[in-house]
From TrEMBL:
InterPro entries xrefs: NMT1/THI5
Name this polypeptide is given: ABC transporter substrate-binding protein
One GO-annotated biological process of the protein: thiamine biosynthetic process
Length: 97
């Protein structure tokens, strides 16, 4: 479970300090890691009313259900696929927001 909390802390750092997170990650990802502008544009996608209530990194069941339904409709997932088979919030620390 320690890695999960470390991931959440990294996500929190990225949300609070995109430039710092980009600088730290740049050596590992290089040009394949995109640009700081892309990261800054992505930060709002990392947070929502759901994550503010359930913890940063928590998957919103409604969002997952919608995404899985779209993939079923496209034929990318079999009919009857359930969103709960693709994510869990069991390891999310609800205090990290």
């Amino acid at each position: 479970m320690g890695n999960d909390k470390a991931s959440q802390r990294g996500l929190k750092y990225t949300v609070q300090n995109p430039a710092g997170a980009f600088k730290v990650a740049q050596p590992a990802f290089g040009k394949a890691g995109g640009t700081l502008d892309i990261l800054k544009a992505s930060v709002p996608l990392m947070q929502s009313a759901y994550t503010r209530q359930h913890g940063l990194g928590a998957g919103d069941p409604a969002g997952w259900t919608k995404a899985v339904a779209a993939l079923v409709k496209q034929g990318k997932l079999p009919a009857g696929a359930q969103a709960s088979a693709f994510y869990t919030n069991a390891l999310i620390d609800k205090t990290l927001r």
